[in-house]
Each structure stands twice: as C-alpha cells, then as structure tokens.
Amino acid sequence: MLHRRTVDDVMTEEVVTLRPDTPIHEVATLLDANDIVAAPVVDDDGAPIGVVSASDVLRHETGMPDPQGRHGNDERAWGKARARTAGALMSSPVFTARADWTIPRAARELRRRHVKQLPVVGDDGLLTGIVSRSDLLDAFIRSDVEIRSEVEQDVLGRILGLDEGTVAVEVHDGVVTLRGHVPEPRLVPVVVGLCQGVDGVVSVDAHLAATR
C-alpha cells in the first residue's frame, strides 16, 4: 500500500503543558516564552482536560468576557475573566486527535471544531503530542523532488512493479505529469489515482498508453 503520513509523522512530541492550579501570570509567561498560541491543561496522570489559549489570557487581562467586551451577560465568560488559575480559565472538554489519524482526517477535525491545534492522546488517554494547523500544512508543502521520488519509487516501482523508465515523471509546483506506457488500459486510472494519493500532489496530468 501507498504510505500515507499520519499525525504521528508531523506532531510535536515535546508539549508545553499546564496544570489546573497553574497561576494565570505563569500561563501568560509560558505561552510567550515558547511562542505558542495555546497549551493543554493536564491532570495528575497526564491526560488533557482542557486548553488555555492566548485569547483566553487576553480576555482575562482585559477583565472582560472578550477583548471587545461582548457577551457581557454570559456568566461563564465573566467567570473566566475573573479566573486566577489555568483550570478556571481553560476551555473544556478538550477535543483530541490520535497519532494514527491521517493528515486529511486531522485537518477536517480542526476545521470542524474551529480550533488551531489538537492534543494527541494514546490508547490510555494520556498526552503524547500536539498537532497544529501549520504542522498539517507542512505535510502538504513538499518539494517537487520529494514528490517525484515517491511517485517513481513507491507508486510506479514498489506498488505497480513497472520497469524503470516505462513511465517518465515530471513534477512542477506539485503538478505531476506522466508520459509513457502501461501494460494494459485498466492500469491508467489506477496509476492516476495512486499518484493523486501522494501527499503534496496538486493534480495529475497523464499521457499514458497501453501496450496492449
């Protein structure tokens, strides 16, 4: 099978975490010192129970439910504005990802949840890493050389078993152009489909003919 990169391939394993009793001023310091926009709050076992973002800290510092002072009748929002610890300020429940998720699945979850990052947990529910939008984007921003190598070696060679030079591969800005011959007509859509499944491929332009 064609190897599809997963969350495990792109996530950050060394995660800056907070405890429920971490004071707000320490939260702000940690976020700033590590140049991150959010950090998970974990319990004594290391399981994520919430997330505190820079926006949460900003709302707290303004003393308002949000920086513009909206939602002024929301008691929960006002409670966060008066919070003194990460546990009182965090957003909960926390949405998490799994290390074996594919990149597209993680991207869809980020979009569906309207968040910028997801803590990654193992089978035991404990934190193993964190994956962000930028991590997922990096997985798709690959050089043309990397894409061509994967198409030639994995798709054409290892999976389809075609002889080297049977199909010429060119890649420009993620667009894969194929020229050559395949043993039979039914393989043409197979080759195209497999190439489209390679991370970083924008489109496939196939000029392939069957030898029989």
TrEMBL record:
Pfam families per the UniProt record, alphabetical: BON (PF04972), CBS (PF00571)
Q: Where is the signal peptide?
A: none
Q: Where is the BON domain?
A: 143-212
Positions of transmembrane segments? none
Q: Where is the CBS domain?
A: 11-68, 90-147
Task: Tell me the SMART domains matching this sequence.
Answer: CBS (SM00116)
Q: What is this protein called?
A: CBS domain-containing protein
